[in-house]
Structure formats: structure tokens, C-alpha cells
Amino acid sequence: MSAPLSASAQDCERGTLDALYCDVDGDLIADIPTDPAKLTDPDTLIFAYTPVEDPAVYKEAWDDFLTHLNKVTGKKSVFFPVQSNAAQIEAMRSGRLHIAGFNTGSNPLAVNCAGFRPFTIMASEDGSFGYEMEIITYPGSGIEKVEDIKGKVLAFTAETSNSGFKAPSALLKADYGMVAGTDFEPAFSGKHDNSILGVANKDYPAAAIANSVMGRMIERDVIKAEQIKSIYKSQTFPTTGYGVAHNLTPELQEKIKQAFFTFEWEGSSLKSEFEKSGEGQFLEMTYKDFWEVVRKIDTANGVEYTCG
Questions:
Q1: Which residues, at least 6 apart from 2, have a Cβ–Cβ distance to it below 8 Å?
Q2: In a designed cystine with 200, which of 150, 190, 227, 283 is the match (CB 3.0 to 4.6 A)?
Q3: Is 276 in contact with 219 (CB distance < 8 Å)?
Q4: What are the backbone angles phi and psi of residue 38, rounded to the nearest 5°?
Q5: How far lies 182's CA from each of 5, 149, 154, 239, in Å?
């Protein structure tokens, strides 16, 4: 990975964080540097949303929020489309990305390897939040239950995805004794929409996906509900986590938080897109508490937050 702009290896408490960061307060995220020389206050703020679907759709969806962000911070903001989770993490680690929404599975890597400080997720107006991992197939595939996947292809998205790889891998092994490469053939589609379309078009016999993405695709008429059959639904997981690079000045970080929590959803381009999956507000959260289940899944899968 590229050398970051914000810090150098230092002697401090850091838990599982990369040597570039400190975690003296034990909240599991990188501390804001105390050395003014390591802080940054950019004129233009770069924002990136997790690469789960067509970036063009989400550039438009985030327009009203970024306009609000500009007003609150007094700065210009730019939507930066990213093509992979790894590219998004690298952009923040190297100082080229200031504000981001990292998907559920990428959050621990972004926190530990890129100094990401998440503080909010989207939630419904009643405060409920989250999504489930579903294993889907198409009607007539011959797959009626999870055990029927044996000997067939199961599509994942990417190895950094919680619902697209980590959770189904752990659950299939723990609950069904099924391991990729032994009991079924894994395929990697790259994104949830690719997996969902692949099943709907009968390119994949089955896939593990985030049902929030599938819901939005059905609402947009990208696929029809009758093209998909669900054979497994997991417990609820936290959704995309939004936050900032650790080395932005404390004053700027507070203004960015203010922008999220004062954004008016009603009538906005953001609500127009995300109400399709039930979201209607930004809910304050902590990585330590909300991502505990995801870290446990990573532990079960033998994942280590190594950077390089």
C-alpha cells in the first residue's frame, strides 16, 4: 500500500490497528493525532460510497447530501466512484479519501488499515436498522434448501464483503459442514448486484447476497421478485458505516458529523434512493458495539486485519 500522508509508525497502544495509528482510549478506532503537523484540513472533501452497485446511480443519490455538506463545512465536496473495496481502503490510507461509507465487511479492514473513524449508519425513521444475508437461487434450479448447493456453484461477491462472503462462509461451515472448494464451487462476482443479476438470469445457480441491495434492485425494476427464490436468511447485520479519515482536524470532523446528523431527508435525492430499503435517517453508532458480530465472524473465518 502507498505510504500515508498522515502518520508514521509510533509507540502507543493500538490493539489490532496498523502501526500507523494509536488507540489510547480503547474504542478500537484510530485516535485523532495530537501532533498538529499530522492533521489535514483540505479545501476539497472527497467522498466515496461503498462499491456495491452502479456508481452513477449513487452519485446522483448523494447530490443533495453533498450540497448540505458543503454548506455546513464551508468546503467543496466531490463524489469519488470506487470500483472495489480494496481501492476504497487504499484511497483513505493514502490520504486521497476523507469521508466514506464502507460496507459492513470492509469496515474492520478500513478501521484497522486506513484509520477510518465510523460514527453513523442509515436507519429507518423508527430507529431500526440493518440487513440480512440471504442465499438465493432461481425457481426451477433444483435447489430447494441449503444442502442442495453441494456439488454446485455458489456465487460470492468479494472476500471483504460480510454478507457476500464472510458471513455465509462461517455459517455454511458451522451450521451445515459445507466448505468452499470441497462441498461446492465458489465463484466471485465482484458486487452484490452482479450476483443478484447472475441468479435472476440463471448464470449462477445460487448466490449469497445482502437483501437490502436486492430490495432496491426490485424497487427499481432491475429484476423481478419472481425471478428469485430465497433459501436462507441470517440474523440482522449493521449496514454501511459512514465516517471520516482519522487525521482530519477535530473541528472539521465535528462539522462533518454535524452535516450527517442535521441532513433533512424529506424530499431529498438520498431518500428517493434509500427509502427503497427502508432508510430515512442517520443513526449515531459506535464501531466497538455495532460491529462486534462482524468481528466475531472474521475471527471464526480466521481473518486477520493485516495491512499490505
A1: 90, 93, 94
A2: 227
A3: yes
A4: -100, 5
A5: 43, 12, 12, 31
| Contacts of 299 by beta carbon, 8 Å cutoff, 6+ apart | none
Taking alpha carbons only, the member of 122, 16, 71 closest to residue 256 is: 71
**90: closest CA among 121, 69, 67, 115?**
115
Residue 22 CA to residue 28 CA, distance in Å, equals 9
- Residue-wise pLDDT for 209-247, tens only, equals 999 999 989 999 999 999 999 999 998 899 899 999 999
Are 48 and 97 in contact by the 8 Å Cβ rule? The answer is yes
Tens of pLDDT along 156-204? 999 988 899 999 999 899 889 999 999 999 999 999 999 999 999 999 9
- All cell numbers assigned to 301: 473465518
* CA torsion, ordered 249, 251, 254, 259, to nearest 10 deg: -100
Global confidence as pTM = 0.79
Residues 85 and 160: beta-carbon distance below 8 Å: yes
**Calculated CA dihedral for residues 87, 44, 110, 159, nearest 10 degrees:** -30
Q: Which amino acid is at 208?
A: A
Provide CB contacts within 8 A for 11, sequence distance 6+: none
Helix 63-73 crosses helix 250-262 at what angle (to 10 degrees)? 140
Query: Per the structure block, which three cell numbers stand in for 204?
Result: 449462477
